[in-house]
Write a structure and sequence with these properties.
Helices cover about 80% and strands about 0% of the residues. It is mostly helical. The chain is elongated, with a radius of gyration of 24 Å. The N and C termini lie far apart (about 85 Å).
Length: about 150
C-alpha cells in the first residue's frame, strides 16, 4: 500500500470515528436536555400540588363539583406523592423492579387509594401513548386493586 493511500485511509478512519463520537454526544446531550425539561415541568407540577394541597382558597377554586375542599386537598397531597415517585422513576432513580414495592407502599394509605379511585382513569388517559407512563399507571392500578376499597370522606 502506498504511503498516501495509508494516510488517506487513516484520515478517513479518524474522521469516521470523530463523526460517530460526535453523534453519540449529540444524542446524549439531547437526552439530558429532555430529562432537565421533564424535571423542571414535574417540579412545577409538584409545586402547584403543594400549593393546592395546603391552601383552602386555591383548592376551593379547582376542586371538582360536589367534592369537599378538605377532601380535594387530601387527594392532591396524595397526587403530589405519586408525581414525585413518577419523576424519580422517569429519571431512573427507582431501581429496576422496585416500582411495585413503592406503589404498594403508597397504596397502603387510604387517601392514596381514594385519589386513585377518583382520578386513576384520568391518569390512565394522560399516560396513553407513553410506554413508561402506561407501565407506571398499570403498576399503580395493580397496587390499588391489591388493597381494600377506599372509604369516602
Amino acid at each position: 500500500m502506498k504511503l498516501t493511500t495509508a494516510v488517506l485511509a487513516a484520515g478517513a478512519a479518524v474522521s469516521l470515528a470523530t463523526t460517530v463520537v460526535g453523534a453519540a454526544r449529540l444524542r446524549q446531550d439531547a437526552r439530558h436536555h429532555a430529562e432537565r425539561n421533564e424535571a423542571l415541568l414535574a417540579g412545577n407540577q409538584i409545586d402547584w400540588l403543594s400549593q393546592i394541597s395546603t391552601n383552602p382558597d386555591l383548592a376551593e377554586i379547582w376542586k371538582p363539583e360536589g367534592m369537599k375542599t378538605e377532601e380535594y386537598m387530601r387527594l392532591m397531597s396524595a397526587n403530589r406523592l405519586l408525581c414525585t415517585l413518577s419523576l424519580r422513576d422517569r429519571l431512573g432513580f427507582v431501581p429496576k423492579g422496585h416500582l411495585p414495592f413503592h406503589a404498594a407502599w403508597i397504596m397502603k394509605s387510604d387517601v392514596s387509594r381514594r385519589y386513585w379511585s377518583h382520578f386513576g382513569d384520568l391518569r390512565a388517559q394522560e399516560a396513553e401513548g407513553d410506554d413508561r407512563s402506561e407501565h407506571f399507571t398499570r403498576v399503580l392500578e395493580a397496587a390499588a386493586r391489591f388493597h381494600p376499597e377506599p372509604t369516602a370522606v
